[in-house]
Each structure stands twice: as C-alpha cells, then as structure tokens.
Amino acid sequence: MKRPDEPATPALVLSAVSRSYGDVGAARGLDLVVQPGELVTLIGPSGCGKSTALRLIAGLERPDAGRIEIAGEVVADGSTFRQPEKRRVGLVFQDHALFPHLSVAANVGFGLNKLPRAERAARVAEVLDLVRLGDHARRFPHELSGGEQQRVALARALAPRPAVVLLDEPFSSLDENLRGHVRAELVGVLRTTGTTAVFVTHDQTEALAIGDRVVVMQGGRIDQADTPQRVFEQPATRFVASFMGDADFLRAHVHNALLTCEIGVVSTVPGWGNSDVDVDVVLRPHEVDLRPDHGRTEPGPEVIAVEYHGAFVLHTVRLLSGQTLRSWQPHTVRHPVGTPVAVSVVLGVTPTLLIGDRAVVEPPAGITVA
Ligand SMILES: Nc1ncnc2c1ncn2[C@@H]1O[C@H](COP(=O)(O)OP(=O)(O)OP(=O)(O)O)[C@@H](O)[C@H]1O
After folding, report:
1. Does residue 370 form part of some domain?
2. pLDDT tens per residue, range 253-265
3. Domain named ABC transporter: which ranges (predicted)?
4. Hey, how many other C-beta atoms are within 10 angstroms of the C-beta on 115?
C-alpha cells in the first residue's frame, strides 16, 4: 500500500533520451518528469525536435540512448522497446487521422477491441459524451466540422484510459476563429478527466496559456522546463527570453547592486552588493516606459516606428548608441515617429540578467568591487 505522503509515480519520465538522424541530433539528452494530471506544452522553433520527442514517447521512434518510463514502467531503454500499442499512450495529431470509412463510434471504439462488446459500447458512449458528441455517434468523419473531428480524435485517444495523451499541433489545421474555441473545449476535457498530456505547439501564447509547465526546446535540447510565468519572467537562457515573447537586450553593468545601462539606472539587484560586472539586461516592451522630451537640448532617444495593435501601440525607439528598444503604450498614446523621448524601465520590474547566453541570478564568483 502506498502511504498518503508517498510521492505519486510520475506519468512520464525521460532520462537522457537521445535520437539522431545521420548527423542531426534531433533529441539530445532529454530529461523530463511529468506528474499525473499535468499538462505540459512543448515548444520551440521548427526543427528543434518537438515531434521527435513526442514520437519517442509514443514508440514511433526508438531512442539511440536513454530511458523512457510511462506510469512507472520502462518502455524504452538499452534492452527494452515496447511497441506503441503496448504503451499506455493516446495520440492526437494535427490531421485527426480518423478512419474515413468508419463511423464516429467505430473510430472511437477502434482501440478497445479487447473489451467485451457491451463494455466497449458503454466506454464509447462515455467518451463521446465527454466531448459532447454523443448524438454524432453514427455519422462519418466527412460529415463533421474540423473542430468536431478533432474532438472525435481526442475521444478516441482517451477511450483506452491512457496514462499520457500526446497531442502534436492539434489545432494547426483549424482556422483562427475556431481554434480558440476548440482549444478551450479540448483543454477543458483534459482537465476534467485529470488526463496527463504532452502538447506540442509552435504558438507561444498557446504554450503559455494552457500549460501547467512549458518545455522550451532548441537544437534537440531542453533549454527550460518551468511554469509559464517563470518561463516568461525568469527565462533561463537568451534563447528562451527571445523566443517566448518580445525582448530587447542591452549591455548593462552591475556595480554595488545597482543595475545601469544606456537608459540610466534600471533597478537594484539584491544580493549583488559587492559586484562589479558587465551583463546584458533583458527588457520586454511592457517593461519599458516612454515620455516625450521635446525640451531636451542634447541628442537622445527618438521614436523610429509606431505600430497600432488595437489595445496597445508598439513604439520602437532608437537610443543614441543605435540600439533599439520597444515599448508597449496604451491605445490612447501615440508618439509620432521622430518624437524625442525619455526612456525608463517601469517601476518594480526586476529584469533578467544574462552573462553570455545564460541567465544569472547570483553574482558570478570572484568578481567583486575593489
Ligand atoms: N525521419 C527523419 N529523417 C531524417 N531527419 C529527420 C527525421 N525526422 C526528423 N528529422 C530531423 O530532425 C530534426 C528535428 O525534427 P522534428 O520534426 O522533431 O522537429 P520539430 O521541432 O517537430 O519541427 P516542426 O515544428 O517543423 O514540426 C530536424 O532537423 C529534422 O529535419
């Protein structure tokens, strides 16, 4: 018997999982633990290895090295390889992959052929109700909308009670308007059923909005696996900072816990009291403030582009050094191109600092004020 304080068995564990195609390292030492009921989003630029990671978990690819466990069972390592149908995974792909000649009910019941007929029919009815398609059981895929087809695909994936559902860009074939709606519905079903899911997307907003955790990949590696808030507010690397939202990078300096850069004092850096070190500071457009500075006599920052985005107006400013910085302003504010401006960082912001390509939270050892 499990003690109540004993940690739950993870739904999925990847340990040092690698897979290459020729000399392309599509997955390079992936480490990830997904807890039961967690919804993890997997994001990164095209070719970073998202689909490879999913295919390795599903058993559609064999790792060259490393171990994969699903619900406490090893499904792939140096000596074991379980076929996809022998792993407790459900798959939902972009193109639905429904059988066109089978009814909705037959599609959903396809993976349940080991169950007695009556039990199978009951489970099919149950999952179709879950995705609100109980009354479409006799239809064929071509008689459904794209969103409905995607809900059938989810019902089919959920029917055998998988330990993990893997979703590969499930909404990318849907148009923009439908997408948000279908996404909310599908995520709602995953939540109410407590389903563990790994969800590949190339949409940053989607990754942040629906993930309990966001896994950011580049070049076959995981750069950061963290809560959406930490991925956005405390990116672990320069790449994560620039990929997950807009970011500008300025050369900066920390001296006696004071962070300064071309636009002046940015913030204090608690715990860096004895430091004297060059860093780069990451500034997001919502962290940068502007005000017109018509009275100034010296050359200085100037607005060089203005983009109206509806609720907000994006201003791009060129600093004296030639570097540019972006600033979101409310939709009522529009400083025309050419406006001389004073630039500051919004009060209370503690920006990310980088040394090289990595974020630093502690002052680097050995660099102190004389
Ligand atoms: N079967 C294959 N044979 C050879 N190379 C492959 C194969 N599958 C993937 N690759 C390569 O491995 C790398 C990772 O591909 P993968 O499809 O996992 O990326 P992705 O992040 O899912 O990309 P996208 O967002 O474009 O779908 C790419 O460089 C790709 O060209």
Report:
1. no
2. 999 889 999 998 8
3. 12-244
4. 16
**CA 59 – CA 81 distance, rounded (Å):** 8
> Contact 29/66 with Cβ under 8 angstroms?
yes
- Pick the last residue of a domain from 222, 243, 264: 243
What global pTM score does this model have? Answer: 0.90
**CA-based Rg of the chain, rounded to a whole angstrom?**
25
Would you say the CB of residue 202 lies under 6 angstroms from ligand 1?
Answer: yes
Ligand 1 centroid, distance to 350 Cα (angstroms): 37
For the segment 187-207, what is each residue's pLDDT rounded down to a tens digit? 998 999 999 999 999 999 999
Residues 233, 338, single domain; the answer is no
Residue bearing the CA closest to ligand 1, atom 6 = 21
What six digits make up the tokens of 66? 């490393």
Its domain, for residue 337, covers 248-360
Cα of 96 to ligand 1 centre, how many Å? 20
Residues forming a β-bridge with 354: 280, 359
DSSP 203: -
46 CB less than 6 Å from ligand 1? yes
**Measured from the CB, is residue 51 less than 6 Å from ligand 1?**
yes
Do the Cβ atoms of 169 and 202 come closer than 8 Å?
yes
47 lines ligand 1 (CB under 6 A): yes
